[in-house]
Amino acid sequence: MLRTFKYISSLVLCLLVVYSAQAQKKINPKTKLVTDTIKVPFFNGITVLGDAASVASSFLSKGDTYSYEAALQADFKHKYFPIFELGYGGADKLTVENVGFKTNGLFGRAGIDFNMLKQKKDSKRTTNLLLLGLRLGMSRFNYNISNVNIADDYWGGSTQALNYNNISTTKIWYELTAGIRVEVLKNIFMGWTVRSKTLISKDVDGAVTPWYIPGFGINKGSNLGISYTIGYKFQLPAKKRQPVKVVQPAIVNKQ
Predict the structure, then answer these.
(1) Taking the complete model, does pTM exceed 0.90, yes or no?
(2) pLDDT surpasses 50 at 37
(3) Which residues partner with 232 through β-bridges?
(4) Angle at CA 23, nearest 5°, toward 244 and 113?
(5) Residue 153: what are its φ and ψ, rounded to 5°?
(6) Which CA distances in Å does 187 have to 78, 118, 141, 158, 182?
(7) Is the Cβ–Cβ distance between 77 and 21 less than 8 Å?
(8) Mean pLDDT for the chain?
């Protein structure tokens, strides 16, 4: 499972390196002069993001579930945004039947966002983003389930309370994401992301399954989630980020 996660993460990065940041030239058919088309730089910095929504939901759940996460996201040509998310989550739940569930662990996601906003010609360049993306998530964790009442079908009527401790499992899922991000101050961005999560790792019938999966949420086939991120973008110095302009020689009319 871990090997699959690393393979897909590497594949996303390899796909990005095929793009180049060269300035294109166009020839005016009337004047036969070369005109410059200035392209967006290939690399435009890295944004460090923290999720405020996960902190708020952890507070509102009163300890039943909790999750905290942050992310690193690169900007390539202001169109392609590979992202790596890392977090810590868990649960400490006691049901009305007095059955207890407890777990905690790290989770990670890797994927890419695509900026769907197109820059209009001769308009001021915007730093705002409309993002559609894909994630692959994974969490490996241990969990405990206590006071599970099992009925004795043979003798009838009697029950037995069982405890299951330190059960280890790995869960993998994928996410389809959509959201917006706005630059509220220079290099400071805020925005939200909606996540549709689908579990890839299926539970075995009859097994003692976890109630909660760090990074995914309640253990069912699919989940919806939302993130509200606050981040700071680290950019290269302006001289290094600016594309090279081609200076055309002056035309001298001969008398």
Answers:
(1) no
(2) no
(3) 48, 188
(4) 105
(5) -70, -25
(6) 14, 20, 36, 65, 10
(7) yes
(8) 82
